[in-house]
Specification:
Length: about 250
């Protein structure tokens, strides 16, 4: 398999709401193990783009390919099953279950297993659950209820749950929102390490530019539904159009 194989290929994607062209002709790719940051001012079309990729919205035109297969217009559960994970926006964990049980439940769901008795369900996937918890640095919390975790640990659990679905592409809408700077750096570094280790393509939006420039391989800047720049972090920082439309305004 070619090293530069694209996990995601988006071509000429469009979505309007009434007269608003929220996504207006997006074309881009994300390779295995690559982290692409999607930035831009409020209303630029970032979340709409995510919703088109994971099937929550159907595009007016354009195509979305995952590992070469056309997934345009498929339903969210179908797209998720094909390997598109989503993290940090929706509460994916169950507060009354332990951290380990949350992972076991996610692994059972991924393997489409159902159990008649809870004790049978909770005998499954223990080593795999613990391996994932270890990868996100949560093994020492395995026996605690998810509901009592600190915010940063809950995000780690959410990430482990996403990994339980063996994603090829991970979509993260503002992963570090609401976190303190130090904790935020740790989380973003963890995402970086996991993307590299599992060869996961990551597409994320983020308003915190330090987080963006710290971990992104490439940065894509949207404005009014269109890409105004795409490239490595240094070239984006130096781009006059980006500074005028976004970075200048943000600082
Ligand atoms: N369901 C909807 N119905 C109507 N208009 C919408 C809908 N969703 C988004 N829009 C409009 O589409 C445009 C893009 O919005 P979107 O939420 O994608 O921006 P965003 O880049 O995620 O912004 P933010 O940084 O604030 O999260 C905006 O003008 C928004 O008002
Ligand atoms: Mg948004």
């Amino acid at each position: 398999m070619a090293a530069a194989m694209n996990v995601l290929e988006v071509s000429d994607l469009h979505k309007s709401f009434g007269g608003v062209r929220a996504v207006d002709g997006l074309s881009f790719t994300v390779a295995a193990g690559e982290i692409l940051a999607l930035i831009g001012p409020n209303g630029a079309g970032k979340s709409t783009c995510f919703n088109l990729l994971n099937g929550q919205l159907a595009p007016d035109r354009g195509t979305v390919r995952l590992l070469g297969c056309d997934i345009t217009g498929l339903k969210p559960h179908h797209i998720a099953r094909l390997g598109v994970g989503r993290s940090f926006q929706i509460a994916t964990s169950f507060a009354s279950m332990t951290v380990r049980e949350n992972l076991q439940t996610a692994l059972s769901a991924h393997h489409r297993q159902t159990w008649r008795f809870w004790r049978d369900a909770m005998a499954q996937h223990v080593p795999h659950a613990e391996a994932l918890l270890s990868q996100v640095g949560l093994l020492h919390q395995a026996d605690r209820a998810a509901g009592v975790l600190a915010y940063g640990d809950l995000k780690r659990l959410d990430l482990a749950i996403a990994l339980a679905g063996a994603p090829k592409l991970l979509l993260m809408d503002e992963p570090s929102a609401g976190m303190a700077a130090a904790e935020r750096g740790d989380l973003m570094r963890l995402v970086r390490d996991l993307a590299t280790a599992h060869r996961i393509a990551v597409l994320f939006t983020e308003h915190d530019m330090a987080a963006v420039f710290a971990i992104a391989d490439r940065v894509m800047v949207l404005d009014r539904g269109q890409i105004i720049a795409i490239g490595d972090p240094a070239s984006i920082r130096a781009n006059p159009a980006v500074q005028a439309s976004y970075l200048g305004a943000a600082s």
